[in-house]
Amino acid sequence: MASLASLVLSAGAAANITSPRSPVTKQLSGVPCSVTAIFSMRSDTRTMAYGGGVSCVGGIGEKTLDVVPQVFNVVNGKPLWFSISLIGRYQGPTAINPLRLTGSAGYVPSHTYRLLVYGQVTLANGRSAATTLCSGDCTGAPTLTIGPSYTYVGQPPSSVPLTGIPCWVGQAGLVFTLVNNTYVIEYSGWSGCVGGSNLGRRSLTVCVQVGNWIKGRAMWFTVSGSCLSGGPTTANPLNVSTARTAFLGHGYRIVASSTVRYPTSHGTVTRSGMVYSAASGP
Fold first, then answer.
1. What is the pLDDT of residue 249?
2. Strand partners, 183
3. Is residue 144 part of a domain?
4. What is the pLDDT of residue 239?
5. Nearest in space to 4 (alpha carbons), one of 117, 108, 81
6. Across all residues in the chain, what is the average pLDDT?
7. Is residue 9 part of a domain?
8. pLDDT digits (tens, 9 = 90+) for 213-253
9. Same domain? 129 vs 245
10. What pLDDT was estimated at residue 200?
11. Rounded to two decimals, what is the model's pTM?
């Protein structure tokens, strides 16, 4: 498996790198996990390559990663750093291990740039740890947060029943938020049955899909790495939620699928169902 450094260097090329920067890595407090930031600039094409990663021993924990390139400027005589809009990367919470995000963008040689990377891990027992790393000019670098600064509900929630049993699978609606000048899709799903908390065993998978036109026909494609699963479990309802970077000019929808093993007077039956946030399936 390629390292984060090789992924970033492949975006910026190993040659013609100005001001080479070593990877910045920090161990999270109290959990066997680390966060890494990688940043490089290529002089011949005037492009910068950047990335971040979160990795845990044994793949434990739910991880969230926010990669934020910044540029320096002086406004009204005051030196300020600005998060560059629309080029950041975001994903989580997710069990993916290691979780890695990379990107590239153009830069102006007369400007000064740096990279901030926020990594968070939450364990099954609720214990959580987080840190912010900086690569570049880190004087006065802030501690990032991941609270949204803007929220837009793009699509409503919907649900469908599973055949022959009092159970449903649903999606909670596509929501777009702005986090550190990065547009983020928040998406989630649920699976539940009428009755007690331990009634049946259910599994759930939630993915986000992007639309495109192929030979005059509308097609939907599952975004690589977007699927998140839960179960099998007796938890009722079972909820799964996550988020990832969204790109403007694309159409998105949620697809949630669930399988439930449900006890009846004639034995346990297995039923499956799927729901989309758009008006219809593929």
1. 80
2. 178
3. no
4. 96
5. 117
6. 89
7. yes
8. 888 888 899 998 899 999 999 999 999 999 999 988 888 99
9. no
10. 86
11. 0.87
Q: In the numeric block, which tokens belong to residue 46?
A: 């005037």
CATH number at residue 113: 2.60.40
| Section 197-213 average pLDDT | 89
pLDDT at res. 110: 87
Say if residue 120 is in the same domain as residue 173: no
Tokens of 195: 């009755």
Report CA 112 to chain centroid distance, whole Å.
28
C-alpha–C-alpha distance, residues 141 and 85, integer Å? 18
- Give the integer Cα–Cα distance in Å for 165 and 269: 9
Residue 211 sits in the same domain as residue 260: yes
* Same domain, residue pair 120 and 241: no
